[in-house]
User: What shape does this take?
Amino acid sequence: MIELALTSEQAMIKAAVERFAAEAASNGRVDPWSSFAELGWLGIGVREDAGGFGGPLETMVLMEGLGRGAVAAPYVAQAVFPGKILERAGRLDLLRELVNGEARYAVAYDEPGARSAPHVVTTTAERVPDGYVLRGRKTHVLAAGGAETLLVSARTDDGVAIFAVPVEDFGLLRRDYVGEDGRDVAEIELDSVGVEPPGMIAGPEHGLAVLEYAFDHALGALCAEAVGVMTTMHETTVEYLKQRTQFGVPIGSFQALQHRAAEMYVELELARSMAHLAALTLAADPPAPERRRALSAAKVQIARSGRFVGQNAIQLHGAIAMTEEYKLGQYFKRMTVLERLLGDADFHLQRYLS
Assistant: This one.
């Protein structure tokens, strides 16, 4: 297995996440937000003057651990994605509240037909004497149910801006539903929602750049989570092949099944190397075109490897893999969602080539 050499701080994060995941699995914790704040994890990857520490590599270690433990927590949706928007926009006052666990945000950027593209924005922000009026519809808003404020992208006469909208705002209509993996998703309709000037988080002169920067950081975190999910699926499958017997011998002794498990391992390591590339690219903070290409390349490989590992894990387990009681099913569902989240392989291949 190819692994980056961890610093002492990263090793501590890895060990803490493993303990946390084991505890979450035993007590069925659904929303561990307060624990994230107590452990200091909401500050991972955040600049020091806002109360944070570490960077994309530390985020990768955390997310891979959460993926391995199938911890159903809105970390990317409510910490990484909105946190990077606030950081890049210079709103350190709001970022400190997020790091301390005092405020919870969700990002409403995707729109019907946009295929997760941040630059496709038809939601409008009309300038009025006392601020702006937002009109439009947002889809696939992750973890909106637990958030207090939405960070909404909208197009002004001068470009794309990002606005903070309280979830209880009059004129904001929300339809909550449960995703394939059991996690909270929402559709948002903005029916003449008024926002005063302080509610503009990022102005039209740099709003889209801020959104794409945060989008790529969220993408890198999801790639790391996917590697964790795939790792557990592969390990679970290998262990099953060792234990399941047929004709009086473990089925893992059959050469054809050994080859399938080996192919799963190869795909897993391809995905791991690209997740490392994504984290290292984000840590280097290159120009936007270079960053986008690297992150899209990583997502393409993650999506393809995740499908291969997941499908083979199900097939090698047989009927037991399809039962609700067996843990492999929840990993497969999460990987299926991760394959499409923030853009599927086709979307990112086009983004890479553009």
